[in-house]
Amino acid sequence: MALPGILSDVAKVMVSLPDDLLKAVDIEAERRGTTRSGLLRELAEETLRRRTAQRVERMAQIDDLDGPITGHGGGVTELVKANRPER
Q1: pLDDT at 39 over 50
Q2: pLDDT digit string (tens) for 47-72?
Q3: Mean pLDDT, the chain, as a whole number?
Q4: Given a cut of 60, is residue 2 above it in pLDDT?
Q5: Please, where are the H alpha helices in the chain?
Q6: Distance (Å) of CA 3 to CA 34, 37, 38, 40, 79
Q7: Would the N or C end of the chain have less CB density within 10 A of its end CB?
């Protein structure tokens, strides 16, 4: 639920964190001059950007193995599966 003029398109969520991690989050948020929520949002965005960049880089590496893949068919599925990074 958005407040009129404030925080439109922002969802509230509940997360569970161990006490020591929450304390570290609060300390870092204060150090950065932001809120707990702001810090967690920033860290989530940073992590997702980094993961996207890693995927782009990995796809470029796969392209370099056999050159760019064109069309459908061939060994594309096998190539992607064989070079898929571990989660």
Answers
A1: yes
A2: 999 999 999 998 888 878 766 666 66
A3: 84
A4: no
A5: 19-32, 36-66, 76-83
A6: 20, 16, 17, 21, 48
A7: C
Q: How far is CA 23 from CA 29, 38, 43, 47, in A?
A: 10, 15, 16, 20
Residue of 47, 49, 40 whose CA lies nearest to 12: 40
pTM of the entire predicted model: 0.60
Residues of 19-32 as b/e, b for ≥16 C-beta within 10 angstroms?
eeeeeebeeebeee
Percent of the chain with pLDDT over 70: 79
Identity of residue 45 = E
Structure tokens at 9: 């398109």
Would the CA dihedral through 53, 57, 60, 66 be positive or negative? negative
**For tokens 């060994």, what's the residue?**
75
